[in-house]
Amino acid sequence: MNIKIACRAIGKTYGEGELAETVLRGADLQVNAGEACILLGPSGSGKTTLLSIIGCLSTPSSGTLELLGKPVDFSRNDECVRIRRHALGFVFQHAQLLPFLTAQQNVVLTAKNTGLSAIAAEQRCAELFRQLDIDKMAHKKPGLLSGGQRQRVAISRALIHKPAIVLADEPTAALDWRHGQTVIDLLIEQTRDVGAALVVVCHDQRLVSRFDRVLTVNNGRVIESI
Amino acid sequence: MTTQSQVSAWQSSQLKTVWQLAWMMLAHNRPRLLFTVLGVSTAFFLASAQFGLLVGWTNTTSALIKHAQVDLWLMSENTRALDFGTPIPRQTIYRARSTPEVSWAQGLMVSWNSWIRPDGSSISVQLLGLDKDKMGGPWQMQEGELRIIDNPQTAVVDELYRDLLQVHARGDAVQMRSLRVIIGGFSKGVRSFASTPHVFMSLKHALLYDQRHRDDEITYVLIRCQPGADVQAVKANMRQLIKHVEVLTSDEFAERTAHYWMLGTGAGIGVILTAVLGLLVGAIVASQTLFATTQENLGNYAALMAIGFERRLLTQVVLLQSLLVGVAGIVIGTAGFVPLVWATARSPLPIEFYPPVLIGLIGIFLVICILASGLSLRSVFRLDPVVIFSQQ
Q: Do B310 and A81 touch (CB under 8 A)?
């Protein structure tokens, strides 16, 4: 078994003293290579907080996180940046593409930052764009793309460097049901292609059937649904 | 294993990334970029024009001294500037000549006078009486020859002041202190500070028009040392031998004169203040617009940090943006400044191009632009990439 993500008793408290608010209380989670997980839960339950900790963007108050079998040292910012750059791929709620670059430039820029050569990055980008059916949009800026097209570009950006882990935060929130389904299907298909572990934070219960595992954050803990 | 060539390829790729992000981010909002560049270039133009004016004024005030081609100037003690000399005995010339290692010494008279124009109005002029070799006089002529001032009642004035003096051709006659003056020629490019044109006559004839100097008095002794002589040693020796006078090298006297006009009268301080204000305006415009650009793109910076871009690279983006804005401002500002230099070259108030000053100004301006990015850098330094999850 190839464990990509291992959260052990992760706790997260915001603020101090009387204003302290505990969001996660010993959350445990293990995700293997090739697994697609959906993380459900009501607003404020801590889904996004857990995702940001797995994404090395937020430091847990307690517990340990292991990515690709190695514990993450959150005190070392350079290590966190390196993990984000090489091991992780992100898809955000509103795509968060750079508005001043074309779709292709957005993806290639990320690839080059991971060390891929310009030629390799452009080839891989073209391949992803073909698979996601946005190859005709390569030279358009995000402002000229629909919400669904923007998310497909964001998926390409997340997968361009073939990361071991892909994290998605509400990737369908800004899309209608039909486009939402398509985006999720493409995300799952593409991450499986690269053998990555996928964790998607989502509100939409209708999408659960598409995932291998359904996880719910409740009362600061992660509960697995059968 | 990472090889040296892979590292260098990655570094080169990072530089291209910095350039791409900096330029594309700026160019994305073209009206703002245009406003920023226009503001910064106007500020640079203003500052360079003011410093050019300062250089022009400084050169104007000391031009006669620098062009006299002598080593030493002997004058009464505490003379503030060339224009404000006090009469000294003519025999000082002979005492100067008798100082060891002096090869040549002649007198020069500088005084103020009243020029009565043909229409009856009068203006102040600076009357210069030149000794036999005409040192301290105009260094180039437009019409006629300088030696004509050896003729009685004959003066040479500069062509820049034809209208002001109301003389337009050789042979025109006016009055100075109720005495007739005939224009014998026109010099070229001999400006005066404070709008008081120079009037050049021979020393012998100039004394007839002046009330401040007696017949046996002059204002300065111009001195040349023998070839190879130590000018400072001659100067020190001369001060020992001739009492109650001051001896300065040409550079020292030029500096003292420029210092008096620029700082003593406050004229230069106003110009310097305007130049500094120009630089400040540039800094504020650059700072505000860069800050606005950074604020507008904070979400993008957060996204880049979240997906693994280093904060160092993003700060380089901000710094490069400030440099790009600065360089664009300098190029456009200079493009406006050069024609101004050309246009004022033949005016009484020249704005002059002096490479060391312009290079210094460019350096200062670029530093100011980088400092102006401080607020923007602070925003990027304080940015927590986790905010990406709350971006709308």
A: yes
CA distance B99 to B364: 47
Strand partners, B301: none
DSSP letter assigned to residue B226: P
Q: Which range (A7-11, A197-201, B53-57) has the least confidence?
A: B53-57
**What are the CB-based long-range contacts (under 8 Å, 24+) for B337-342?**
B337/B45, B337/B48, B337/B49, B337/B52, B340/B49, B340/B52, B341/B52
Taking contacts as CB-CB distances below 8 angstroms, the residues of chain A near B9 are 117
Residues of B in contact with A48 (CB under 8 A): 389
User: Mutual orientation of helices B267-296 and B30-67 as an angle, nearest 10°?
Assistant: 160
Per residue in B26-75, pLDDT (tens digit) is 999 899 889 888 888 888 888 888 888 888 888 888 899 999 999 999 99
Residue located via tokens 């359904």: A214
Q: Flag whether residue A162 sits within 8 Å of chain B, measured between CB atoms.
A: no
Q: What's CA B173's distance to the chain center, in Å?
A: 35
Write out pLDDT tens, residues B111-129: 999 999 999 999 999 999 9
Residue numbers in B near A112 (CB within 8 A): 13, 16-17
Q: Report yes or no: A134 and A148 within 8 Å, Cβ to Cβ.
A: no
**Separation CA B366–CA B134 (nearest Å):** 47
What does the pLDDT read at residue B2?
A: 60
Predicted model pTM: 0.78
Determine the distance in angstroms separating the CA of B307 from the nearest CA of chain A, rounded to an integer. 6
Q: What is the pLDDT of residue B392?
A: 56
What residue of A is the nearest CA neighbor of B312? A78
Contact, A39 vs A166, CB < 8 A? no
Query: Is pLDDT of A76 > 60?
Result: yes
Burial class (CB in 10 A: 0-12, 13-18, 19+), B335: exposed
DSSP B72-130: EEEEETT--SGGG---EETTHHHHHHTSTTEEEEEEEEEEEEEEE-TTS-EEEEEEEEE
Separation in Å, CA B216 to CA A124, B88, B286: 96, 9, 63
- Report phi then psi at B179, rounded to 5: -110, 145
With beta carbons less than 8 A apart as the criterion, state whether B36 and B289 touch: yes
